[in-house]
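Whiteboard transcription, Tuesday session. T.W. wrote the structure tokens on the left side:
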């Protein structure tokens, strides 16, 4: 069996960070009213801001595939994969996550 190593990981956060005060502007309110439990829950979990892949009209701004592609591209950018291969993969696999094993330049290693 061939040994496999994780050599990089990537992240992608859509749009700008949303504060707790703005959260219901994006997620909506129940019967037009603010949540009564929101402040208590947010105080307990300690989260100050978050990222949503939607806008204030509750319209999706990024699909799951787009989030994944951006995270994969970030991982590839930070990886040991040869720059020529990253450019090749970006141009040829922009509609879905690239497969690092496929590269016209060979091994895709520096």
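and on the right, the sequence the group agreed on:
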């Amino acid at each position: 069996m061939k040994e496999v190593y994780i050599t990089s990981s990537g992240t992608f956060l859509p749009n700008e960070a949303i504060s707790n005060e703005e959260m219901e502007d994006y997620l909506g309110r129940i019967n037009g009213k603010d949540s009564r439990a929101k402040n208590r829950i947010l105080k307990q979990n300690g989260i100050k801001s978050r990222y949503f892949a939607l806008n204030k009209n509750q319209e999706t701004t990024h699909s799951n595939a787009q989030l994944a592609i951006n995270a994969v591209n970030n991982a590839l950018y930070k990886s040991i994969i040869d720059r020529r291969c990253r450019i090749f993969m970006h141009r040829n696999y922009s509609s879905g996550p690239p497969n690092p094993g496929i590269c016209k330049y060979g091994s895709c290693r520096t």
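Someone added at the bottom: The chain has four helices and two strands.
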